[in-house]
TrEMBL record:
GO molecular function: hydrolase activity
Organism the protein comes from: Eleusine coracana subsp. coracana
Highest taxon listed in the record's lineage: Eukaryota
Gene: gb16928
Keywords associated with the record: Hydrolase
PANTHER family: GDSL ESTERASE_LIPASE, GDSL LIPASE/ACYLHYDROLASE FAMILY PROTEIN (AFU_ORTHOLOGUE AFUA_4G14700)
This protein's name: GDSL esterase/lipase
Length: 108
């Protein structure tokens, strides 16, 4: 639908990001990006390390960059940074299409 809209609107540029594909690639080899833990949250609630919300009295991990998740629903700061880096400068078709976010910012 968006590609059809772009064909009708001269100068219209867009980029779609594949977060699922990036996550799948990252989780298939977590050590390649420095993760040592892709299942437990860094901000641990009292039950099973993320079943409760991250609260001021929650335990925090000491190795935050090695965790994929901050809490039960949010990526860690490193996860957000890796996503931004991959979407901003990605080989088109790998995690972004039809262009990466850098190309989108440079389009006029």
């Amino acid at each position: 639908m968006i590609a059809g809209l772009a064909a009708k609107l001269p100068g219209f540029a867009y980029s779609l990001a594949d977060l699922y594909g990036l996550t799948e690639a990252t989780f298939s080899d977590p050590g390649a990006v420095g993760y040592t833990d892709i299942s437990a949250a860094c901000c641990k609630g009292e039950i099973l390390g993320a079943e409760e919300a991250c609260l001021p009295n929650s335990m925090l991990c000491t190795n935050r960059d090695q965790h994929a998740f901050w809490d039960r629903v949010h990526p860690s700061q490193r996860g957000a940074m890796l996503s931004a880096m991959n979407f901003y400068r990605s080989r088109p078709g790998r995690y972004t299409m039809p262009i990466d976010f850098k190309g989108l910012t440079e389009s006029s």
